[in-house]
Amino acid sequence: MAAIFVVVFIASLSLPTHLHAQDSLPPVLADKIGLEFFRTGLNPTKSDDILPSWVPPKASPCRDYAGIVCDHDGIVTGIHLSNADLAGYINVPFALSHLSRLDTLDVSRNRIAGPIPDFSPILTLQVLNLSYNGFSGSIPDDYFSGVKGLKVIWLAYNGFTGEIPSSLSELDGLTELRLEGNKFSGKIPASIASPTLKSFNVSHNSLTGEVPEGLERFKASAFEGNDGLSGEFGKTGKAVEAAVVEEEEKKKKKKEEEEGEMDEGSWGLPVALGVGVIVVGLVALLVIVRRIKAARSFNSLNSENHQEGTGSADVRHQNNAYV
């Protein structure tokens, strides 16, 4: 078993880095190979001491690997390795890009260093937690354009520099953004002030300028430690929370209107049919009444004619008698 895995593992080195697991290998095998690349990148000089439960030839990542979450098909969906004494770097091209259903990566509270990896090949990624590591350097302004599925981003307490990427505004479903304890500078992009944000913190950086209006609802502690930052912090919802409530009301009203339209549509046909039946019934009744009246008039006329005819015959008989 070990020999087979080694052969497949070595063969996988020749795979193009842009291919996903579904393009080349069965998902379960691709997951296993990808996780081994990921493990060996974490302090490769003593990789056998890192995550010993992952050391080949363990049979199943879903059953045997610590920190791995899988779906009902046995495909890896989550890596949860917080506080696991990891170092080295995160290998995305050869490793994580082969995990075709990975939606959560949590490697917080370790000693992983270097620039932020490019996670764009992981098309399914929704939760990214790199907090409390040694990541450094600036994050390109368009970085998050390639990972639009992200909903939760925790980059707190690293050594990131430069400005906060404005491409964060492209993440329509972003609910949590934690950037505290870095060296970010410049202004907070107003475009990231989305009503969908439930958790937000940029404290202890080097930010300047005014806090965007849409972010003032968060407590002052979310902005402290930025000497150049100004604004009204901690509006406990009276301004922005009201906007959030208003947005929810709009959604509710829209839903009710849609349901109302559906109700109208569902009742419209029966009502129309009912009205049609009544109209047809009234017309038929009117026709019947008219026919009855016509028949009565005809019978009455015939009776009168018959009486007139009888009277004329009597007169003629009397005249003949006189003759």
Please characterize this protein's 3D structure:
By secondary structure, the protein is an alpha/beta fold. The protein is built from five helices and 13 strands. It has helices spanning 2-11, 21-24, 27-41, 61-64, 240-322; strands at 68-70, 76-80, 104-106, 113-114, 127-129, 134-138, 152-154, 159-162, 176-178, 183-186, 199-201, 206-210, 228-230. The strands form two sheets. It has a seven-stranded mixed sheet. Strands 4-6-8-10-12-13 form a six-stranded parallel sheet, with no helix packed on it. 27% of the residues are buried. Mean pLDDT is 79; it is low at 1-22, 236-241 and 307-323.
Short account of what is shown:
The protein is α/β, with parallel strands linked by helices.
Protein topology:
Blueprint: H1 2-11, H2 21-24, H3 27-41, H4 61-64, E1 68-70, E2 76-80, E3 104-106, E4 113-114, E5 127-129, E6 134-138, E7 152-154, E8 159-162, E9 176-178, E10 183-186, E11 199-201, E12 206-210, E13 228-230, H5 240-322
Parallel strand pairs: 2-3, 3-5, 4-6, 5-7, 6-8, 7-9, 8-10, 9-11, 10-12, 12-13
Antiparallel strand pairs: 1-2
